[in-house]
Amino acid sequence: GVDLASLGSGRKVVDFGNVLTESQESSLESAIAALERDTPYRFRVLSPPPGQGPENRGEWPAIVKAVREYWATDERWDPKSVVVLLANPRQAGGRAANPVNFSVATKLTERLQYRIASDTFTKIANKFGDASYVASSG
Prior knowledge:
This protein is an alpha/beta fold.
């Protein structure tokens, strides 16, 4: 499991995988706060504990549920308008796999279908979340 109580309340970045420095985490928190002030959308970043991401079918559902419940305590939380960036360094086929993926609320995808193509977040993840890009640029 994960210890969300240790985070305090209101965190938009949950980095159990320790993939971010404190400075990066702070910058993301500020950027997300600005985006949320200026848009009706909710943005969150999740880095699961090593080995407990989506590839771990036993642990992952409980982690997702706990984090979703933690984020839902935010009075402005709207699960229909959320984009979650999943930062999950992992191996696939013996080499580093793409460590960044997005999970976009179905209703948000439907609302934005004419402005953002359905594969936009996949393209962003493939470009900026590629293991070699992350290694060279952070």
